[in-house]
């Protein structure tokens, strides 16, 4: 199993989106004998982005050299960084924070500063700008772990509501069946 | 009493559809006791289904009695269970004894009406909501050879899809 390999790398690829990027890249990695671990691919602003755990069965230079032709052809920028840790290190969230408001600079810093002050550990964060172009709305969903109660967190975030940002704190109840 | 082995993904037997229970006898009661012991031996699962221990009969144990803040019917043994009505839907995070170290988002009905027999073969009707309704749907899926990983959706999935007007 790949988990016995402690030498994971984190491969980051960014570029203009088009069909077939994942298959081309992973085929090269497979050809090198690399294993893949956890991955997160998403389009951001119409761009292709992926972060991918790649086991370091090969020297970094060899992985980068092998990917260079594909990256060049597809116009992808790539990074390969050593990664401490490994698989099977999941933490389960117990709190969800939903934020929405007229888009303005500083919403993320305001919300996350308050959460950090409460010892809230953000495990997942996704955000988007919705609404009309003239009236953008910033929407953010956070899932994380906190020992504080819903009431305590809601109370700490309440000042934001007064400033026109809607913040909802709710439990994440993971069902094990 | 015995703690039974739990089948884990990718064991193909988890895809098997279970048969209805016809005999409500001591053999059934003994099996239910083993199934309960197995549930309690593992990580705090609120439910377990017979096929998870390679016993392909339509038997589920559900126990939300430890969650006083969640509307629930306590400890239930559900034989030949059948959902007769569904209402509403919500996304929630699920994990499974048969899928260690993975959780994912699944869309389930928020209110259900359930028909099931107990260990003596007596039929009952239940109105369930929220977490208990979710747990029942998760366990009943096992009886039909489905796992929650067969239903996982991306966290970006739009729960309230825009209507498409023709």
Oligomer: heterodimer
Strand order of the largest sheet of chain B: 1-2-3-6-7
Order of helices and strands of chain A: EHEEHEEHEEHEE
Structural class of chain A: alpha+beta
List keywords for this structure.
heterodimer; A: 177 residues; alpha+beta; Alpha-Beta Plaits; 2 domains; four-stranded antiparallel sheet; 28% helix; 41% strand; globular; B: 166 residues; Peptide Deformylase; five-stranded antiparallel sheet; 2 helices; 18% helix; Peptide_deformylase_sf (chain B); iron (chain B); EC 3.5.1.88 (chain B); metal-binding (chain B); metal ion binding (chain B)
Polypeptide structure, described:
The complex is a heterodimer of chains A (177) and B (166). With 177 residues, chain A is an alpha+beta fold. Chain A folds into 2 domains: 82 residues, Alpha-Beta Plaits (2-Layer Sandwich), CATH 3.30.70.260; 77 residues, Alpha-Beta Plaits. Chain A is built from 4 helices and 9 strands. Chain A has a 4-stranded antiparallel beta sheet with strand order 2-3-1-4, covered by helices on one side. A 4-stranded antiparallel beta sheet of chain A has the order 6-7-5-8. In chain A, a hairpin with a 4-residue loop joins strand 6 and strand 7. The radius of gyration of chain A is 20 Å and the shape is globular. In chain A, 19% of the residues are buried. Chain B has 166 residues and is an alpha+beta fold. Chain B has one domain: Alpha-Beta Complex (Peptide Deformylase). Chain B has 2 helices and 8 strands. In chain B, the strands form 2 sheets. Chain B has a 5-stranded antiparallel beta sheet. In chain B, strand 4 and strand 5 form a beta hairpin. The termini of chain B are far apart. The relative contact order of chain B is 0.20.
């Amino acid at each position: 199993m790949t988990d016995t390999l402690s030498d994971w790398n984190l491969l980051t690829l960014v570029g203009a989106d088009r069909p077939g990027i994942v298959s081309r890249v992973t085929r090269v990695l497979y050809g090198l004998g690399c294993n893949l671990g956890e991955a997160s691919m998403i389009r951001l602003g119409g761009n292709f982005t992926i972060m991918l755990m790649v086991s370091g069965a090969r020297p970094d230079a060899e992985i980068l050299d092998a990917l260079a032709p594909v990256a060049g052809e597809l116009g992808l920028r790539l990074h390969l960084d050593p990664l401490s840790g490994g698989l099977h290190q999941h933490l389960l969230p117990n709190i969800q924070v939903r934020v929405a408001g007229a888009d303005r600079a500083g919403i993320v810093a305001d919300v996350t500063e308050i959460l950090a002050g409460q010892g809230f550990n953000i495990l997942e964060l996704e955000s988007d700008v919705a609404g009309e172009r003239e009236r953008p709305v910033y929407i953010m969903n956070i899932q994380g772990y906190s020992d504080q109660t819903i009431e305590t967190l809601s109370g700490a975030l309440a000042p934001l509501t007064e400033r026109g940002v809607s913040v909802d704190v709710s439990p994440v109840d993971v069902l094990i069946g | 009493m015995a703690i039974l082995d739990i089948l884990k993904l990718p064991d193909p037997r988890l895809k098997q559809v279970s048969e209805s229970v016809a005999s409500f006898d001591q053999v059934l009661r003994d099996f239910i006791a083993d199934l309960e012991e197995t549930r309690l031996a593992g990580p705090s699962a609120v439910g377990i289904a017979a096929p998870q221990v390679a016993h392909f009969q339509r038997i589920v144990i559900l126990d939300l009695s430890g969650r006083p803040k969640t509307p629930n019917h306590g400890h239930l043994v559900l034989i030949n269970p059948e959902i007769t009505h569904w209402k509403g839907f919500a996304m929630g995070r699920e994990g499974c004894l048969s899928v260690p170290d993975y959780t994912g988002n699944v869309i389930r009905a928020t209110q259900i009406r359930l028909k099931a027999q107990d260990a003596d073969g007596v039929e009952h009707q239940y109105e369930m909501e929220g977490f208990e309704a979710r747990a029942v749907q998760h366990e009943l899926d096992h009886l039909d050879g489905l796992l929650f990983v067969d239903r996982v959706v991306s966290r970006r999935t739009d729960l309230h899809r825009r209507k498409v007007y023709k």
